[in-house]
Design a protein that fits this description.
By secondary structure, the chain is mainly α. It contains 5 helices and no strands.
Length: 123
């Protein structure tokens, strides 16, 4: 079955126009129907400020340390060349993390739905 002649690109020729004529329908902005009777979402239970303030109280001062680190990062970010949080943490940290490498997992030439294959993968 051959496509109709107007559906092929055989009759396509370069245009001599220097400007694209956009149909009026594409230039119009459609009206969005907003519903004035619809209200904003309401929470089932009221939010309490104490929920957010409770994390400020911790025994070893991790919240205070993290806020101080954030502030130090923001202050040094303005004056230094490195704008990265990662570079800042590497300079600040005294712990050298173990370097890891990422590789491909082995491929098992066995059907995935068989119990023997699953047992091999789990072990």
């Amino acid at each position: 079955m051959t496509p109709p002649p107007h559906a092929t690109l055989d009759n396509l020729r370069p245009s001599s126009k220097s400007k694209l004529d956009v149909p009026d329908i594409l230039e119009e902005i459609p009206h969005i129907n907003t519903n004035p009777t619809k209200s904003e979402p309401v929470l089932v239970t009221q939010t309490e400020k104490a929920w957010f303030d409770s994390s400020e109280i911790d025994s070893n001062g991790t919240v205070v340390k993290s806020k101080a680190t954030d502030m130090a990062f923001l202050m040094t970010r303005k004056s230094s060349k490195n704008k990265s949080w990662t570079v800042f943490n590497e300079q600040l940290s005294t712990v050298n993390p173990e370097q890891t490498s990422v590789g491909y997992l082995p491929i098992l030439l066995a059907p995935a739905h068989k119990l023997n294959t699953l047992n091999t993968v789990v072990r």
